[in-house]
Amino acid sequence: NAREAALCEKLNLHALTLEWGSQFDNSRDVAVEEHVLDILQPHKCIKKVAIRNYGGARFPLWIGDPLFSKIEFLELENCNNCVSLPSLGLLSSLKHLAVKGLKKLKSIESEVYGEGFSMPFPSLKILRFENLPEWWHWDTDIKGNVHVDIFPRLQELSVVKCPKLSGKLPELLPSLEILVSKCEKLVVSLSSYPRLCRLEVDECKELVCRTPIDSKLIKFMTISNSSLDMIGCKGMLYDSQAGSSLPKPMTTTNVLEFGKLLEPGFQILETLVIGNSEQLKPWRQGRGLS
């Protein structure tokens, strides 16, 4: 009996995993599972929560309740009937958030940040979205409040296997160091990630850089099956007259044209892989685009 578990009274419980069976069929009762998850609300001292294979259509309010200020880790996985996310931005200590396999999630709206909250996700460092087949819209612009700072401490952003997601990733991520994007309709813009040191892009609609960034920090880069539109990015463009050799230990695969990297960009780059990228716009140093 879920009520007899009395999780809300267990002050010393710091990690909680709630997992249902992986089979989603007519034997599952959506309303019952929603009621059970409501009852299984833990004590507010909880730090780590994982919910897997949950069959309800909504998450309980306690998951986005700001009173749960000690939650640092939250994973929502294979909750196939859920169509929205709670106000997770109100969890002031949340550092790691993973959302995976929510097959009916179509849109992440501004409600996820929390109404009236000036700094959503103030502590979040790792954000991962994976295998969300119907997700097509991510609202990263909180309308009516230009002073809201979203993801101020985010260091790693991963968006993988979200084939319908279009538009752009969040801009102005001052702490972002690792970016992984593998979504074919997504536009990835690098101009607002000044601390980026690892980039993995596969099958994105377009990789864009239109203002200078400090590429001296980048150690690892792999780009595959993507259209490149890089204008004014020191160290990320190439000289069409400089030949085709690359300084070791960099490697490339299936590159149509790639010349000498411009200095002083990529001074500490250890690995560079570019595969199946059919559009590389040439750059002639001192002359602009050819």
TrEMBL record:
SUPFAM superfamilies, sorted: L domain-like (SSF52058)
Protein name: R13L1/DRL21-like LRR repeat region domain-containing protein
Alphabetical list of Pfam families matching this protein: LRR_R13L1-DRL21
Domain of life per record: Eukaryota
Domain R13L1/DRL21-like LRR repeat region, first and last residues per copy: 2-101
Segment forming the signal sequence: none
InterPro entries per record: LRR_dom_sf, LRR_R13L1-DRL21
